[in-house]
Amino acid sequence: MGQMPRWADVVLVPLICLLIAFLFCGVLIWSIGQSPVQALQIMVSGSLGSTYGWGYTLYYATNFMFTGLAVSIAFQASLFNIGGEGQATLGGLGVALALLYVPWPHWSLALAGAIVGAMLFGGAWAFIPAWLQAKRGSHIVITTMMFNFIAYALMNYLLVNVLRPVGKMDPASARFDKLTYLPKLGDILGLVGIPFSNKNPANISLLIALACALGVWALLWHTRLGYALRAFGKQEKAAVYAGINPVRITLYALMLSGGLSGMMAINSVQGEAHRLLLNSVEGAGFIGIAVALMGRNHPFGIVIASILFGFLYQGGSQLALGTTIPREVIVVLQALVILFTGALPYMVQKPLERLFVRRAV
Amino acid sequence: MELASFLQILDSTVRLATPLLFACLAGLYSERAGVFDIGLEGKMLVAAFASAAASYATGSVWIGTLAGIGAALLFAGIHGLASITFRGNQLISGVAINFLASGLTVVLGTSWFHLGGQTPALTGGMRFEDITLPFALENTVANQGALRELSLIPGIYSRVISGHSILVYVALLMVPASAWLLYRTRFGLRLRAVGENPAAVDTAGVSVVGLRYAAVAITGVLCGLAGAYMSMSLSAGFLREMTAGRGYIALAALIFAKWRPWYALMACTLFGLLDAVAIRFQSIDVGVFVIPVQFTQALPYILTVIILAGFVGKAIPPRAGGEPYVKER
Questions:
Q1: Nearest CB neighbour to B255, from listed A28, A142, A289
Q2: Whole-model pTM?
Q3: Would the CB atoms of B100 and A335 count as touching at under 8 Å?
Q4: Does A289 contact B at CB distance below 8 Å?
């Protein structure tokens, strides 16, 4: 069987998958009596037409970068961490505890504390399934999925019974101190003279997410641990034979993954809500799966895919404001992207391979 | 606790366990044939929507049921295509199916009925009627007083066993039927074999692909019934996200039952009971400490994690589960 050029595998396959998903959604929008072209126009102008829209796009993208990197680092070790949702929920708890109970003198120190809290709690929530998989052989997908629900119940309990301020009705923690608020992206870009709207939640977490992408890339391809992780993912038996400890790799991969998922909370909890809400994750943990698949499991691909999904999410909410098309069209699109890139890759890849091989002959 | 509320909890246990049982048995067929299915939730949801929509449009609960089965079969077909024909990742396909159902039901529901994603309330012949078994007191307004007066045994008969829709009894019948089909027929033997060692089945000249598609189709039909029960019997119409994680609980029950039909009945009854208790009581005071309702809600998941880890018994999945079958070349 002939090989496709690498650029086709990396760029063309995801693009074709995306195109098919878009086509399906276009037909769906058309079938409910709306105009797909108009819908796309509203989405583009609402999310990319102003710096205000861009801010929201980048805010969502920041969440997806964290969760996408989290899913991909586990994927590299051939582990499917479906528990990003729960790990990000616990990460939110870590951020909230760090910000509520420590009097931070400056936002930068608060951010450092919040990052530690997020990584500790998110990582710990991933540690239990990882340990159970490595030591007891329970299936990682099922356990992490169960831990999503357990995390939700735990958060519900804590917010209603423990963290809720006296006299308040809604299940949410108290507000954080104003000193812990993160600088907005608009302020940062203003320093270098770029005018950018400040009325959106995009904040410094975006830069941290980008740094994390770089860090994950360096870790995976330029360290001993990254090599062990990828070797374990490619061929478990060979890796073990080469002296790689499977228990340790499973624990490391999953805890890194959980820690990254948890980091999402510095954007959504510290950066946007300024308090801990019941559903602070809002499905970003699951979108991480789509992002990791779309980004071909590579940190740089994930950054691009995150921005794409950020655009889709912001565009989707604009759609709900401007037309009668429900924003759940985006959920359908997301499902189709997961389906085509993750579950049906051969459907696109095989014909494409044949095309390239025929041209080469 | 007084008898009346005890019977009431048992009654809602039966009602809440039924969709779990359908979905759990659905997953049983698929996973026993070696196709992992975490898309039970999505198939239930899309079936609940299709049944309610078709039943509202035609006024017939039976056409509604057929529509539900059809929708779930379609989704099962996508899963089969991805995991059997195209040898994709079965877990990812399941995730995609859950999202597809969650998005599609809201998009179509909002644009068809303009009620923010739900269908109009179903009335009369659009819903399943409750069946009163022979010698049981019918559950009517006039009979409420008499029903409360019943002692334990007649009370259980009239209030817990009798007075459910036909689908409850179908679900219960599916348990012995599945046990018989899986353990006493040639089809069942082959189905179990294809989940353990597909190569052996292939060598015997039986189609692995055919068997797996058959299993996935049975899964679709049962998920369709689960959804139809949700929207046309348990509730009177479709609400967005109405399955509310029941597909995952069913999956947990399947693991808890170690992929066996009779154990599935027990696991689903237990999880149904937990659900009924969580709805009836907010927190349970056991004297020394208080069990918060959130703990009762999380208990099915916690129990599943414990059993999966092998701390109490050991749940071993079918050996070829999750792996697409590739004929040797």
A1: A142
A2: 0.90
A3: yes
A4: yes
- The reply to whether A105 touches chain B by the CB within 8 Å rule is no
Contact between B126 and B235 (Cβ < 8 Å): no
Closest CA to B29 of B229, B213, B172, B167: B213
CB A43 within 8 A of CB A60: no
Q: What is the pLDDT along chain A (361 residues), one digit of tens a residue?
A: 456 777 777 788 888 888 999 999 999 999 988 888 998 999 999 899 889 999 999 999 999 999 999 999 999 999 999 999 999 999 999 999 999 999 999 999 999 999 999 999 999 999 999 999 888 878 888 899 999 999 999 999 999 888 888 888 888 899 998 888 999 998 888 888 888 888 889 999 999 999 999 999 999 999 999 999 999 998 888 998 988 899 999 999 999 999 999 999 999 999 998 999 988 888 899 899 989 988 888 999 999 999 999 999 999 888 888 788 888 898 999 899 889 888 887 787 778 888 887 777 6
What token pair was written down for A276? Answer: 């801990």
B positions 250-309 inside 8 Å of A (CB): 251-252, 255, 292, 294-295, 297-298, 301-302, 304-305, 308-309
Nearest CA to CA, how far is A331 from chain B (Å)?
5
Please indicate if any CB of chain B lies within 8 Å of the CB of A27. no
Residue among B102, B297, B310 minimizing CB distance to A153: B297
- Is A28's Cβ below 8 Å from some Cβ in B? yes
B130-131/B290-291 β-pairing = unpaired
Question: What amino acid is encoded at A36 in this protein?
Answer: P
Beta-carbon-side half-sphere exposure of residue B97 (alpha carbons within 13 Å): 35
Contact A342 B248 (CB under 8 A): no
B170, B179 contact by CB (below 8 A): no
In whole angstroms, how far apart are CA B177 and each of A307, A313, B22, B27, B96?
Answer: 51, 46, 12, 15, 31
